[in-house]
Each structure stands twice: as C-alpha cells, then as structure tokens.
Please model this.
Amino acid sequence: MLAAVNAGLARGFRRFILAGALGGRLDHSYANLCVLQYLREQGCDAFLAGEDEEAFLLTEGETRLFQKEPGTLFSVFPFSCPVCNVSYTGMRYPLDCHDLFSSVSKLPMGISNVAEEGTCSITVHHGLALVIVPAAR
Model:
C-alpha cells in the first residue's frame, strides 16, 4: 500500500481512497492506518475503505459533517497520541470538548456512538482522532 501511495504522491495526487484497506488481516489493517497517518502528514485528504466500514483521521481544528441515517454507529479514538479532545453534535452521546484517552486504564468512551439526527458532526480540538463509520453503500 505504501508503495502505491508513494507512486501517487510522486505523480502529484493529493486525495486518496485506499480501497480494500480494512478487514481481513489485522496486521495489514494496522499498517494501512499508519499509511493513512503518513498521508495526513503529507497534507493529503485520504480514507481507508473496507467492505463494511471506512476509517479516516481528523486533526486538530478539523470538523467533519456527516449526513447519515439515524442509528448509524460512529467510533472515535485517539490515534498516535495519548489523548484527543473532541466534540460531537447530533449524536446520542454528545460531547463538548471532552478528552478521549488511548490508555486502557481510562474508560474508552469513543466506541459506538449513534447518530440521532440526519446531520451530525465531529470536531477535534486537540490531538489526532481515528474515526470509523459504516461504509457508504
């Protein structure tokens, strides 16, 4: 995957959809998440697409709006950092500038939030957040 991404970067591409990058072997999925972070560090817009879910990173100061059916699950985790601070709107469990931790000694609060409205949002105030949502059909 990294070789393909580097070839795209060399050709000037700045937007990447990494299809088939999730599911199957966990080691490959993790490596693809690292490639996703590499792309963000290069200033690219990118996401991983699997059969059942998609994953992308949001960085500090970013807000992403979603048009999803009520009941859609969202999971958000700190990625490559011990904590990220986030806000959610339009979800069953809204947050306002709340810390999510990567330490297993802290309660993992970012898993399986639920869209309650047609439009919801995630804002990252600090850190880097991995967002996992169902794949678009």
